[in-house]
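Students often ask what a holo structure prediction actually looks like on paper. The answer is less mysterious than it sounds. You provide the chain, you provide the ligand, and the output is a string of discrete structure tokens encoding the 3D arrangement of the protein together with alpha-D-ribofuranose.
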Amino acid sequence: MAIPLVLDCDPGHDDAMALLLAIADPAVELLAVTTVAGNQTVDKCTVNARRVLSLAGVTDVPVARGADRPLVRRLRIADDVHGQTGLDGPLFDTEPTVPESPSAAQDVLIDVLQKHSTPVTIVATGALTNIARLLASEPALTPKIAEIVWMGGSTDRGNIAPLAEANAYVDPEAADQVVRSGVPFTMCGLNVTHQALVTDDVLARFERIGTPLARICVEWMTFFASTYRQLWGFEAPPLHDPVAVARVIDPAIVRCVEANVVVEAKGEWTSGATAVDLFNYTGRAPNAQVAVELDREAFWTRIVDAVTALG
Ligand code: RIB
Ligand code: CA
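The corresponding structure tokens follow.
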């Protein structure tokens, strides 16, 4: 039985690839896509999510707009990484055919959780604003969430501030609330997503697929590579967000350890830092599965297979 899944995202190049994986991998069933402000405004992220589903030919999965700003902070977008559209690279001269859901993300999340016969996994690949709101407003629904698997945080250093990863930094109050909620939580941070590098070999595998969709993937990843090279000097960019989807598809692809995680929301210099107590210095009970190691070959094979299957 495929694992029922909602993807809460801020596309974003790596979110786009995470969407394609969630759409096409037979181990999961994508029930809904919800968007959140982060890489770009929520308007642009929602258009981008609709774009990805349109390219994949998906017409039966709602795309619902979520929070347009963090819980208490001003939004900081990442147009330096993802461009003016949030998904720069290939140019499109038509609007995406998949419409936006008339319902807001919160209503779609509630509806999916209430109606699905078994608990649903939420994969979040942006700031946790929508998820924090959901947990705060609908505590009775938490047993209907199988787990929350988040691309965010880091056991090491950050990528937007010395100690903060971008999804944690954008809305640390939301991340803090979700981590403390007691809902089963898995964190796929930079320490593991930096093992998912789009090397030339990987790019060549997508080029060999030879379909229009695969070509667009190559163009997305080539744009992403250019900003990672320019901003951080990476030779190959890390494709963060599909790591969280891969963890759900096959837990063996992403090895995790149990640890206590807290999110710093107050620090003057450390806001958005994830303090991951890998060695139990604090004595606090583990509250998360923390990803530490990626099976690169299995990971890339799953994504290449997904894009191939979409034709
Ligand atoms: O830090 C990487 C994360 O920030 C990814 O989810 C990327 O899409 C951006 O949102
Ligand atoms: Ca993202």
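Residues 23 and 304 are 13 Å apart (CA to CA).
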